[in-house]
Amino acid sequence: MELCDVEAKGRTILIARMWTQGKLTGTIPAEWQEYWNLRAYKANPPQISRIPKTLEYLQIYAQEMAYINPPRENESPKAFRQRIYQTLRTISLAEKEPRAMKITQIHPTTEWKKVWDNLQSTWAPESIKSTWCKVIHDILPTNWRLTL
């Protein structure tokens, strides 16, 4: 069983809801879609920069709907949502490159197998090993990180 992609799932819910609400006259999403010319399916994404940053959800909707065809005739809402999710998941997987840890970027010539072996075989208590793992992975909560 594969875990769901939370980001793609959240965007799917947003897009499906915006699409549904956009079809109902008198709703705010319908008014915004009309105002920003987002109602019709477009083969190319519209200029996202023309939509204010305060309406980020509209920017997301405009950008993602360029890759998703409108619901097909007799397509159930559930099938439409699944199609949106699959499309966004595919895009998400295609965009993500494996990222090297920051420490390996800083010290590319380090023999990391030796580092991990030494860390595991040391006499230090588990609490110290755990702290060193956090340092190596650059996930130690510091004052600088907490203020970001």
List the helices and strands and how they pair.
Blueprint: H1 6-22, H2 28-35, H3 56-65, H4 77-95, H5 102-106, H6 112-121, H7 126-136, H8 143-146
Helix pairs in contact: 1-2, 1-3, 1-4
Describe this structure in words.
By secondary structure, the chain is mainly alpha-helical. The protein has 2 domains: 6-95, no CATH class; 102-146, no CATH class. 57% of the residues lie in helices and 0% in strands. The chain contains 8 helices and no strands. The chain has helices spanning 6-22, 28-35, 56-65, 77-95, 102-106, 112-121, 126-136, 143-146. It is elongated. The two termini are 35 Å apart. The mean pLDDT is 80.
What key phrases describe this protein's structure?
single chain; 148 residues; mainly alpha; 8 helices; 57% helix; 0% strand; elongated
